[in-house]
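Hi support team,

I submitted a single chain yesterday and got back a structure, but I'm not sure I'm reading the token output correctly. Could someone confirm the output below corresponds to the sequence I sent? I've pasted both exactly as they appear in my results page.

Thanks,
R.
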Amino acid sequence: MTSWAFADAFVAEDDALRWARDRAREAGLRSVSPGTGAALRVLAATVDAKAVAEIGTGTGVSGIHLLHGMRADGVLTTVDPEPDHQQFARQAFRAAGFASNRARFIPGHALDVLPRLADAGYDLVFCDGDRLESLDYLAESLRLLRPGGLVAFEGVFASGRTVDSNPQPTEVIRLRELLRTVRESPELVPSLLPVGDGLLCAVKR
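Hi R., thanks for writing in. Yes, this is the structure output for that exact sequence:
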């Protein structure tokens, strides 16, 4: 086993997470790696998160990790265009032991929903949606976050394509633009974590 594989599997996952992963595989959805999930727990705990916004519910894998890291009275607001996926996430959250009032599910396109959420009302925003919209998610996240809040983007390595010098599809070009924008922004304190498929994190000043 490599050091990377050991680190990625360091935090054990329970039955609820395994069930959610199985549903994601059946639906052909990507889900965060165990190592990325563990990092999300730590990030949520570090900012003492009471209010978290998630772009891309999926079947609930990342949501379970975020809820584990949040305060006991924290609420996860999770947005996804597919209500069927959110139903799986509801079941997964319940199986993980979270009360129904710990999560607010909003079906819809993220860029239609996010403008309706409160300015500076969130401690953490986790983005795992359409990569083509990454820069728009960043702009919305900066509005949603309180000072000292944190934004995280999953999958920024794009299976190694982000650093591949060969011609790449538009979504990879958008990820490169996102990385450059976050790194150069005076509003943000950034870090790129080598967990899963790359987790870009930044604290809002």
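A quick pointer for reading it: The mean pLDDT is 97. Let us know if anything else looks off.

Best,
Support desk
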